[in-house]
Specification:
Helix 2 (13-21) packs across helix 3, helix 3 runs antiparallel to helix 4 (50-63) and helix 6 packs antiparallel against helix 7. By secondary structure, the chain is mainly α. The protein has helices spanning 2-9, 13-21, 31-45, 50-63, 65-70, 72-84, 87-99. The protein has one domain: Serine Threonine Protein Phosphatase 5, Tetratricopeptide repeat (Alpha Horseshoe).
Length: 104
């Protein structure tokens, strides 16, 4: 999980996604860590894979809503997705941003 975070922080989204796919989320017992991983996955997908990024953020919210709402970086990502997402998910992305208090 730390490698996923490092890869996405360094801008290597492909490596972050590849590493994340190898992690069994059922084996992650700490709720906040699971949400953190999902947020990192969303960050990795934010570059053109908007539907996957949105799905990862929703999964993180389902896992630990307080963790998602408390992170300013998630609010920024949610606003970006609401702005950049294709029409097919834009409304859902906007509703998500509003729900977590990330409106502009």
């Amino acid at each position: 999980m730390h490698q996923v975070n490092v890869a996405v922080t360094l801008g290597d989204a492909g490596t972050a996604i590849d590493l994340a796919r190898k992690i069994d989320l059922r084996a992650v017992t700490v709720t906040e860590r699971k949400a953190s991983l999902l947020i990192d996955v969303a960050r990795a997908f934010q570059w053109g894979k908007y539907e996957q990024a949105h799905a990862a953020l929703r999964a993180a919210e389902d896992t630990a809503p307080q963790e998602v709402a408390a992170r300013p970086s998630v609010g920024t990502l949610a606003r970006d997705l609401a702005t950049l997402a294709p029409a097919s998910i834009r409304r859902d992305a906007e509703q998500f941003a509003t729900r977590i208090g990330a409106t502009r």
